[in-house]
Amino acid sequence: MTLDLGTAGGARLEGQGEPWTLVFIRELRQPPAVVWEALTDPAELDQWAPFSAARNLNEPGATTLTMVDGDEKLDTPAEIRVVEPPAVLEYSWGADLLRWELEAAGSGTRLTLRHTLVEPSGHASVATGWHVCVVVLQHLLDGEPHGVVRGMAAKEHGFDELREEYAKLLMQPS
């Protein structure tokens, strides 16, 4: 089943030079505590995130996040730095830094991801990847799991077209 990805939006780049930080914002229908579990529980992460986690991300300290693309797997070191349930989760992912901020918004959650990129040239692909992941996450939270979409499998759901939209949206002035 192909996912309806919608259109690019809710993303911007911050910074004056390298590294850039991608700021990605989405409104989710569930309260922060429910979203928090999806961000920290390895069983839930494995259903929507671009990686699997070696342990629960609810505790500070070292862990491994494994990128999965079909049969290929790449272990990446991670360090859980900030754990303030259900509001802030921050960790390194290789050289990158991810900061998830959850804020109550009515009966739902405003999710803000700040992904500081070591290689800013891939910002449109990174934004598109998170867009796909959060669409899958919303299905999971709604009780209608789609199944994880990782790596090259995202092309079957319109990744390339959506990446073009993000490239235009995130274009930096010269």
From TrEMBL:
Superkingdom of source: Bacteria
Name assigned to this protein: SRPBCC family protein
Domain Activator of Hsp90 ATPase homologue 1/2-like C-terminal: 31-141
Species of origin: Paractinoplanes hotanensis
InterPro entries: ASHA1/2-like_C, START-like_dom_sf
Pfam families named among the record's database cross-references: AHSA1
CDD domains: SRPBCC_CalC_Aha1-like_6
Sequence similarity: Belongs to the AHA1 family.
